[in-house]
Input
Amino acid sequence: MLMVLRKKRVLAISAVLLLAAVALTYAAAQEQGVLRYLLTWDVQPPGGGTPTDPAAGKTPGAGTGDQEPAAGQTDFFVDFRLDRERTRAEQLETLRDLINNKQVPEDARRTAADQWLAITKQIGKELELEGLVKAKGFADCIIFLRETQCTAVVKAASLSRGDVAQVGDIIIRGTGLAPKEINILSRAQ
Output
């Protein structure tokens, strides 16, 4: 009975984290005008022009060096997120199959459940950190956590020492990693 309750709790937490990840990705993509391109076959936005940001009344990235990718060119940040989500979904599917397979020994199923929980926590932490970096005014950010290391790729032509310190501080506070375990890179596109 206790094992069934644990499984339900793990599945409920996993579902909540996965929904939060999808919601945050959706909100970020909508905010950047990217979702429209992901859900259609159009290479260019409708009308052939660049979408505008109604809140600012200007083209995204105008004057900041953060230009929308040209037709046929891909956006590293969007592609990376899609690849990461696809890979994680495959990992979670494999783990779910192991957890639900009664032919697999109980200790292996328990290990798979622990791995499932670790992956969902990692997804949530990465999304949280990415959101905090973007809240500091950066156009976009990808965070990739490993057990003892973190890599952050910030969308910017270059990063000042102050920018690196801001991003590093967010990661240190969110993960508890030492500064030498954190790698911060910039990428314009």
Observations:
- The longest helix spans residues 2-31.
- DSSP finds five helices and three strands in the chain.
- The first strand starts at residue 141 and ends at 145.
